[in-house]
Amino acid sequence: MDELYLLFSEERIYFSEKRAIRAKKLVLFRQFIKVNHDSFSLLKTIKTLDNRTNMIPKDILVKLVQIIDAVVHRHERMLLSFKGKIKQQETEDKSESSVSDFVDTLLNLYQDNEKDYLIFLPLATKLLKYDHELSHLQTLLNSYERVRPKDKTKVLHKQD
Q1: What range does the domain containing 24 cover?
Q2: pLDDT at 92 exceeding the cut of 50
Q3: Which of 6, 36, 125, 133 has its CA 20 to 30 A from that of 103?
């Protein structure tokens, strides 16, 4: 993904009117890549904490699963709307507030029992970062959609 982005960014544009369009696409693609890296980092953090989740109370664990599912589903909707598979929804997502509320809950657990819950702070920070980058991506997608509503990325299939 990073190498394809690098190749695309080094591609030369000969017409000046297409440079602005290409620059907007570069910003959008760079943010897509950043969000994908953050989602992978969150996934790795979840995997490292997998065997320690029994320390979390059940209600907070259920909330964690719901938060992660909502954030990943939001990311998937953004990808599908950019490809033109679904209509883009400009709704105010409550996921940012729910993620910050969940992180506050984890911090309260940490304050109650510092030794055991310290291991969940990296998960909280990765989840906050991922949600923040998704919000920024949504802003970029809304801006791009307003400027170039008919310019969709075409997916080319491999021809034999």
Answers
A1: 2-147
A2: no
A3: 36
CA atoms within 13 A of residue 20's CA, in its CB half-sphere: 5
Tokens found for residue 28: 């959008």
Counting the structural domains of the chain, the total is 1
Instruction: Say which CATH number the domain at 143 has.
Output: 1.20.120
Residue 46 resides in a domain: yes
pLDDT digits (tens, 9 = 90+) for 23-53: 888 888 999 999 999 999 999 998 888 877 7
Any domain includes 60: yes
What pTM was estimated for this model as a whole?
0.76
Banded pLDDT at 81 (limits 50, 70, 90): confident
The token pair that represents 25 in the structure block: 């696409």
